Each structure stands twice: as structure tokens, then as C-alpha cells.
Amino acid sequence: MDAASWTLSTSILVFIACTVAIGVFGTRITGVVDQLADRTGIGEALAGAVLLGASTSLGGSVLSVVAAWNDNADLALGNALGGIAFQFAALAIADFAYRRANLEHAAASAENLMQSGLLIALLALILIAPTLPDITLWGIHPITPIMLGVYGYGLRMIRTAHDQPMWWPRRTTETREDEPEDLDKVPALAPLAIRFALLMLALGAAGYTMEYAASNIAQATWLSFSAVGVLFTATATSLPELVTSVAAVRRGALTLAVGGIIGGNAFDTLFTAASDIAYREGSIYHAMPESVAFWAALTLLMSAVLLLGLIRREKEGPAGVGVESVVLLALYVAGVALLLGMGAE
């Protein structure tokens, strides 16, 4: 059936089906990534940043690129930046699931601190782009290759911090370090890689289909494309981060949980870079609506709050969770309320 002919009811059902698929496949990929981290020796923080972050975000990245290719900048950017904010809220929820100590305290590591700094830098570049001249080369704004270069260099720094750390956070009774499993109990690399690839393909297919359903929903309702991106597709495509973070915390893989969220968010900023390449009307940054620019600034603030929490490492906070987690949740709720208050334009 042609997606353009879908009714609102059909679009909603397809959207729900894609959401369930992303949640199921995204959850299953967590265990595979944890085992890949042990089998390859790259560590949970880097595995969370690259493998888990990229794989669980694949549905969202495909959705943003397809939306940009269809000249729908509002949906592409809203989905990318809305997902970052939701994932921070997911990390706060994961903190509630770990009752022994605040997650920022137990999972503090040099790699996660560096990932937070990298995320802040990438978000800042996104906010700077619309203020620069609207100049493109082959339809690509200069900020896009800069973002890709910064991301690649940042990953190299994070890997160096894992292999040759220059300092360590002080260990406490509640500090949980990255402890690899017994490799005799971990499947071989080849079957793990095949499972990883198949799950990524399933996530990508779900994200591709969801874009058409989301566009139809926006056209058939009072909601704008940016609102659908920020509030609906971003939440749906980020469900794996919520589920996998809680699952990783319960498995004791705290560094993977935190690294997966921060690394996934850093990867999500590349949605905008990929969308700029796919967008055929010029610079996608200069097509950014005010509501999405507001959301970008909000995610920058949330990134700073988490970074401060990882540095401060408060052991116990209100209701057994970190103050930073409470602030992250409050910022997300306030952001949704303000977005709706602005008329979701």
C-alpha cells in the first residue's frame, strides 16, 4: 500500500507497530553490545558510545534522513534533538532503578566525562550553524563536515582515555567499574557481529517506515511536523535507550548504561549532519524552526547538568536519586510544556 494513501488510523497503527519493533529489537541489542565490548576489549564506555549509541539510534537516524530527503526539515531536526532530551530523561529514570547509589556517582569515568564534553561541543556547533552565512557546497553547509570531524576526533580521545588513562575518579564502595565477563562464556565474535547487524537492519527498517506514518499524522492533525518530531517520533525511536539503560543498570553494567545514553546523544547530533547532506533545499540548519532551536538549547543545558553531576559525584540525593536526575526530568517536562505552550509551531 502506498504510504501517501494511508488514513490517519492506519498511520497511527503503523506508528505503534514501528514503536514496538524499535523497543523490542533495541532492547535485544543491549546484551549483544555488552558481549561485543568484552569480546573486542574496547570497554563498556566506548561500546556504549559507538555500538550501543549508534545501534539503538539507528531507527531515529534513518527517520531523520528520510524526512530531510523529503524536504521535511522540521521533522528531521525535531526528531534528532527531541530524542536527545528524551534520552537524558531516560537516564534519570534509570537512576531510579539503581537504588544503591546515584548513577552519576557509581558510573563516573574519564570516558563518560569526555563523552559529555564532546556532546556539548556538537550541540554548540548545531546552535552556531544558523547564525553563520547560508553558504553550501553541493548543498552541504560547512558545519556538517566540521561536526563529523569533531565526532571522529572525540571518539579517538575517548579510546585513548580508556587505553591510557591520565587520571581516574576516586573509587568508593559504590563505584562500579567495567569488569569484562569470562570470555569462555561469551559467544565468538562472528556470530555476535551477525546478530548485531541483523538487529540494526530491523531497527533501520522500522525507522524508515515510521517517517511516513509520522508525516501523515502531522498532516492529518493540528500538530506541526516539528512537534510530531520532538514529542512523538523522538520518544518512539528513543525507547530503546530507556529500556536498555534500565536493563543495563539491572545487569550491573552501569558504565554501559551511562555511556550508551551520552554516546547515543552524541551520535544523535549527527542526525542533523546526515540530514543536511540529504536535504536538497540548501542548509538544513537555516531551515530550523524556533521550537527546534529552543529544544537544541535545552539539550545543551541538560548536557551541562549531567556533566556537573558526573564531576560532583553525589552519593545520595533526594528519594535515593541524584539531584541532577531530578533536574533532568524537570527540564524535560518543562520543555514539553513550553513547546506545547508555544503552539507546537
Descriptive report:
With 345 residues, the chain is mainly alpha-helical. The protein has a single domain, classed as A middle domain of Talin 1, CATH 1.20.1420. It is built from 13 helices and no strands.
Q: Which shape, going by the Cα principal axes?
A: globular
Radius of gyration (Å): 19 Å
Q: What is the number of domains? A: 1
Number of helices: 13
**Could you describe the largest sheet, including whether it forms a barrel?**
none
Mean pLDDT: 78
Relative strand content: under 5%
**Helical percent range?**
over 70%
Short description:
The protein contains 13 helices and no strands.
Q: Could you list some keywords that capture this structure?
A:
single chain, 345 residues, mainly alpha, 73% helix, globular
Helix and strand topology:
Layout: H1 8-40, H2 44-56, H3 58-69, H4 73-97, H5 103-106, H6 110-128, H7 143-163, H8 189-220, H9 225-237, H10 239-251, H11 254-278, H12 290-312, H13 323-341
